[in-house]
Amino acid sequence: MGVQACEPVRSGMETMRRTFSSQLLTLLLVGMAAGAHADSSDQSSQSPSNPPGDSATPPAASATAPTPATGPLSITVTGKAPGAEPPLPKLAPDKFTDCYASGKTTSPEVADWVAMEICEAELSRDTRIVVDKCANRDGNSAPPMAIQACTELLDRKVLQGRDRFYLFVNRANAYFAQGDKQLALDDYNEAVNLAPKNAKPYFYRGVFNAQTDVEAALRDFDTALSIDPKLVLALRQRAIIYLTQKNFSGALADFSEALRLQPKTAALWSDRGYVCLLQRDYESAVKDEAEAIRLDPKLARAYFLRGAAFGDLGNSPNAVSDIVTAVNLDPSLDHYVSTKGKTASIALPPL
After folding, report:
1. Spatial separation of the C-alpha atoms in residues 247 and 9, rounded to whole Å
2. CATH of domain 1-73+263-351
3. N or C: which end of the chain has fewer CB within 10 A?
4. Are 218 and 243 in contact (CB under 8 A)?
């Protein structure tokens, strides 16, 4: 299947609420909502194969689904309490000297090479532990632990030259998660200064800037993509910002290029289908969401969006089927469905 973008049908922002007037649709949606509520305590609110960041964050449950806005990029950070982790191993500045000293014997001319190798292996192990904590490789490091680990590595000059930008980026991410935004920005800036020809520092700073300064974020994503035009993460984040600015042509171009680079990524097909929905190109939306479903049959959002497109095309049976499937896969999507009398309405979840 190609990656031809949907054609803009009209320039205005598509209304976020779709209404279906079928008696059959109303009955099915009411039953679906009741079943989803009954099962929600045993299921995750995110579909198993939908990666974090690609699934919608639903609002609190209410009688009617609110109309979501495609707002600035948001980040939610979770982590364990700092006290739940063991302390970091110490990386003393004289560790290598200690290793050499451990290999000395009573005879100055003879060294205990086995003792030295054991000591160096311990040093390597300890360094690896600290590196893993700084990078939050297992996803469970609390921000203070990651900050401590990155600071240890920076102080001990474990990495030299421009490669140190990795440590600054990881520490900045931890500062940001902790709420220390100025310290985070300082480290992001230091990472950019250390590696001005590497796309990644600009990308990470762009994600940070998107919280408060969309134009600064766009500049960072533009720079990242000028350095590495194949950085799909930057293409997607820039497309999301374009959506907030109602720049649908820009969003379509970035999603289409991302799909050219990664045509087997289901979430990207669903993202572009979302833009087609906003432009009222429902047939293209159905095609993109269908491809997303083919690649990932458990991608709940794709069924939900295809159901919305089917509804706007007047195909109520397929609309009902897809929305029921979506809510069964991800019960949180039920919050975007509301019924009133013989009418059922859905709201589009944000990207």
Report:
1. 14
2. 1.25.40.10
3. N
4. no
pLDDT tens digits, 232-250: 999 999 999 999 999 999 9
- pLDDT, tens digit, for every residue of 167-209? 999 999 999 999 999 999 999 999 999 999 999 999 999 999 9
Show the tokens assigned to 73: 């990029």
pLDDT of residue 43: 38
The one-character DSSP state at 111 is B
Distance CA 180, CA 65 (A): 34
Indicate the helix (H) or strand (E) that contains 17: strand 17-20
Q: What's the CA gap between 274 and 283, in Å, rounded?
A: 12
What pTM does this model have? 0.70
**Alpha-carbon span 296 to 269, nearest angstrom:** 10
Fold of 76-209: 1.25.40
What's the sign of the alpha-carbon dihedral 322, 327, 328, 329?
positive
Q: What are phi and psi of 80, to 5 degrees?
A: -75, 160
* Residue 210 · residue 36 · CB < 8 Å: no
Q: Are 134 and 164 in contact (CB under 8 A)?
A: no
